Amino acid sequence: MVSIRRSPSPFLSPGAADELGARTGAPIGPEGGDVTVAPRGLWRPIVDVFVQNKLATVGLGIVVVITLFCFLGPVFYHTNQVTTNLVVSDQAPGAQHLLGTDDVGYDMVGRLMLGGQSSLEVGLGVALIGTVIGTLWGAIAGDIGGVVDAVMMRIVDALLSLPGLVVLIILGAIFQPTEWLLILILSLLSWLVPARLVRGETLALRAREFVQASKAMGAKRSHTMIRHLMPNSISVIVVNATFQIADAILILSALSFLGLGLPPPAATWGGILSNGLNYLYDGYWWQVYPVAILIIITVVAFNFIGDALRDSFDVRLQRF
Amino acid sequence: MIGFLVRRVLQSIVVVFGVLVVTFVLVHLLPGNPAKAELGPKATPVAIAAFDRLNGLNHPMIEQFWLYVSRVARGNLGFSYVQNQSVGSLVGQNVPKDAILIVASTLIALVIALPLGILQAVRRNSVTDYVLTGLSFIFYSTPTFLLGILAIALLSIQFHVFPAEAPQTSSALAILEQPRALFLPVMTLALLTIAQFSRYMRSSSIENLAQDYIRTARAKGLSERLVVWRHLLRNCLIPIVTLLGLSLPGIVAGALLTETVFNFPGMGLVFYKAAVDQDYAILLGFTIFIGVATVIGNLLADVTYGLLDPRIRVGPS
């Protein structure tokens, strides 16, 4: 269980990792403070998953390649993604345009990069904001308990009862969508599930000795929460965040299909796909299948990662 | 059991109240004001003032909220001036049709996903398991609208097996008379649910297979088939009840997209058209309806779970 060698983490300085590890209550052993038994770093188990699980590694590889393609690609492959050029519309793939052009003459490869940037940014942003707010909400509700907990969790229940897509459609119809606004709107709903999960974890952790000890020593509530409750819920939080990126990309594509995505010349994968589907029967396959495959493999890749993390942390989620 | 029931019902009432608060906030988020939302963007100031007085919108916020709650409690979901019809009657007309789509696809999904998940658990880490896992990942990750449109392209346009459009009638009974036209929308929605449920069944069965009662059944000398069908399946069915309750909002969202793709004349399509027309009365009325239906669905799921599994009744939720 306890790794013997010191485990430097890529996310934290070795000292910080060990300090956090010690605080997360990693077993020290009967000798108490024996140097041969170093505490595990907070992020070490997450790194281990990628070393041990092939699917997770494949998933991570796909995510890295696609991210590089979308963000670094435009540096090497210059295309005009601002002005339309109807002279070259609907061209088949060739030397000039590797994946052809769309109905208003945008180069498809460049379009995929641009759409990927916004889709990945929205996915990541939504998962990040939702996770931070949800974690705080859940930890506070779980730690304080009583009436505060009941009120906070009923708010979550009420929002969870509303079908997300329906609320998003209303908000999308009210506001003119920009990328930041889409992130905010999607985040309004993405914090609910992490809030529930972290509250559950907090309730279980609250009764544990190291949390009791921290409280008995007079630690402030905020200290206990940030130093003990949240780090120990990290596995649930990370697993859920991974799934949320995947879900946000899918929801964004659904919104784009309904005409509530980003207006041109901005692009999202969903928008490119639903635009391309209009020309499915004209035989313009390059406007449909490359983007469809990109969406599917990206979402599958994030699900691979989430699945592997969940299995190895033995986290139970009401999903899949 | 009575205490559990009372507590859950009280909780649900509080949650319904919360749903109303959220929709009330949404009403007041609307650009302009509710009067404009109902009367249209070109409403004159006189008409707006008259509308405000008529609907109590000149009262303080708290009072307005109370009026709103009592209006909804009397079953009045608002009036759509675009459709010139009350939202309540629109719900009444369309919900039965949606019920057909949702119930049919969920039943099909259950019938397929349950055995599939168990098969994967029993043959864990075999080629069958890997192939089915891969398929469920792919179907889960495919946007619903893409699935629907590709199904039309393949099965309607290419091979002429099924009609591209859902049954175009106004009554729920007439829809049932055209099962061929119903096939594609139902299956599109079902595929998504199958992907989700079979994954859930797989992990739930794997967990159950490690339980003592399975070992006991095997030790009694039961055949593997009996162990699976009599003992494993029954115990795996219990959490499905909760899963159904939790999946409801997701299935409703899927139904909305499916209806848009296949022009299925249900609530989802009306809702989508309302979003395009900015018909806020319908948008909010439907949201309240679906929210309340979900709360009731979850309550029923919890109660059923309590009846099926005595262990769940004690202790706080």
Structure explained in plain terms:
The complex is a heterodimer of chains A (320) and B (317). With 320 residues, chain A is mainly alpha-helical. Chain A has 2 domains: 36 residues, no CATH class; 274 residues, Orthogonal Bundle (MetI-like fold). Chain A has 13 helices and no strands. Chain A is elongated, with a radius of gyration of 23 Å. In chain B, strand 1 and strand 2 form a beta hairpin. Chain B folds into 2 domains: 119 residues, no CATH class; 184 residues, MetI-like fold (Orthogonal Bundle), CATH 1.10.3720.10. Chain B is mainly alpha-helical and 317 residues long. A two-stranded antiparallel sheet of chain B has the order 1-2. Helices cover 78% and strands 1% of the residues of chain B. Chain B is built from 13 helices and 2 strands; from the N terminus they run H-H-H-H-E-E-H-H-H-H-H-H-H-H-H. At the A-B interface, helix 5, helix 6, helix 11, helix 12 and helix 13 of A face helix 1, helix 6, helix 7, helix 9 and helix 11 of B.
